């Protein structure tokens, strides 16, 4: 009896590979066990695997929030005590570990010191289980895909030992830069490229005590129409809230809601984060919320008096905002300039006119 009790766990271990960072990037697995195409290639009738993610996204590349991914195996009537589930990307024909796409796993189901994408449990009463991972997004914006594979129940198939498996349809995970052309001219924020992650005009409505924001322009103006290389600098100060994300947007002074300054004819030639297509709203991952952002702009081609103000946003939940006083930006037609050579004919003509009047008198 004692020998049988000792043999059972050993047999269970031989059936499993153990929790690890597992790749399906070849016909064999890494670390190797039974291979991709030769085992775990079908599931029992009715058995299923599902995935869910919270929050649903899209996500911001700079904001490393914890995203929870659940994979659930259900409707399994197969008696077994070992279940392994892995998170992989959607590379065809063999998926890779999601870490290869830049996802960081901060917690796995079995609480490994270094979390891994493949988790395996033994001595289970059923293979109907839910496994959980916490992940943070890649640093590069893009559209990513995550799918899960479940593996269980070694069995005899032909001449080899085979197991059952299940796979989910891939989750589509959109990661955005967070920077965009933001417009507050409607009941909700309108961004281009569209960023559903923005929270609308009903949030970031109050400022934290003592927080301040300033906005300056260099040169100070007035400006000629289409004048280039005007530097708008925005600085936040005295923010004592603890947060790791700060966004600042340049707005016109349309009240009660404000629009993107581009709608007034300002061209942004360089934004605070150096985006190839410069935006009016930029976000940064920061260690302090007291920061300085700068934009280079070109004046509108139409003369007039314009206003530019800045709004800083920070804090989770409903969040906080600080809005600056508006800068008054006078734009005028260029004053005509004459060269020294061009002034001589005018001077001669003026003298001739005066002499002619004298004769007539």
Assembly state: single chain
Number of strands: 22
Averaging pLDDT over every residue, what do you get?
Answer: 80
Per CATH, the architecture of the largest domain is Sandwich
Give the strand content: 35-45%
Number of domains: 2
The end-to-end distance, rounded to whole angstroms, is 140 Å
Give the uncertain stretches in residue-range form.
Answer: 1-14, 155-160
CATH superfamily of the largest domain: Immunoglobulins
Largest beta-sheet details: 6 strands, mixed
Question: Helical proportion?
Answer: under 10%
> Which sequence of SSEs, written as H and E, runs from N to C?
HEEEEEEEEEEEEEEEEEEEEEEH
CATH class of the largest domain: Mainly Beta
Alpha-beta content class = mainly beta
What coarse outline follows from CA principal-axis ratios? elongated
CATH topology of the largest domain: Immunoglobulin-like
Total of DSSP H or I helical runs spanning 4+ residues? 2
Describe the structure.
- With 361 residues, the chain is mainly β.
- It folds into 2 domains: 2-176, Immunoglobulins (Immunoglobulin-like), CATH 2.60.40; 181-331, Immunoglobulins (Immunoglobulin-like).
- Helices cover 10% and strands 37% of the residues.
- It has helices spanning 2-15, 340-360; strands at 48-54, 59-60, 67-74, 83-88, 104-107, 118-121, 130-136, 142-157, 160-167, 171-176, 181-183, 190-192, 212-218, 223-224, 230-237, 245-251, 267-270, 281-285, 292-298, 304-314, 320-323, 327-332.
- Strands 2, 4, 6, 8, 9 and 10 form a 6-stranded mixed β-sheet that branches.
- Strand 8 (142-157) and strand 9 form a beta hairpin.
- It is elongated and about 125 Å long.
- The termini are far apart.
